[in-house]
Amino acid sequence: MKVAAIQMVSVSKPDTNIQTAERLLRQAKSQGAELAVLPEYWSIMGLRDTDKVNFAEPSSGGSLQSFLAQMARELQMTIIGGTIPLQSEDSQKIYNACLVYDANGMQIARYDKIHLFGFQNGEESYQESNTIKEGDDIVSFESAIGKIGLGVCYDLRFPELFRNMGPCSLLVLPAAFTYTTGQAHWEILLRARAIENQCYVLASAQGGIHDSGRRTWGHSMLIDPWGKVITCLDEGEGLVIADLDLDAMLKIRSNLPALKHRRFGC
Ligand SMILES: NC(=O)CC(=O)C(=O)O
Fold it and tell me: Which residues belong to any copy of the CN hydrolase domain (predicted)?
């Protein structure tokens, strides 16, 4: 299966971001992608956190959900819709939700970001819990290539989340790592999750300077189950696309059966 990760530098106008997402999804399709993932907050990343709340849709439907469903149906592609803001029971807070659509445009999974980012170093300060309500449920779904597990951005730092999914063929991570933390940790963490779970990791990122002044790290990439980076972007919009080789994954698991050697409770 050919998979693509789309990278964006989302601006403060959601309509412009939707046009960019559509263009890049069409490009992924034209290059043969059967599955594509958008980055975290692809429609609203350019806005300040407090303004993002105003763009939240009810989970029963909205224009972002219609867009994702229609693109999946028209392009006949599984679309992992990055994250979009969905309303929660608390009017001050939204879910940072990752919705998955199959090639018929049916929503087949929803994951709400569980771990909420907090960081301050004197120059930058982020506190996602001010405006985001955390999810509670670990989510994976079945596909033609086996189980696909979902995480969002900061979740990458919590290996137990992915371990608790059971063996997946592919972990998918829409993200918007900051420039500062991404430069230091992004690739190392992604490769660690691929190596310890002996599976592919597909990460789509925001990468550049946004209208809000925030700078993100980019470096969307696909990593194989041996921990090798197969393809990677730098900053700026674009996409990475590559084939998954499940036989190679099974060979790695057979040569080095670390998943079977786990000792639960130790
Ligand atoms: N932006 C995030 O959610 C996470 C991040 O930047 C980090 O973990 O570093």
Answer: 1-246
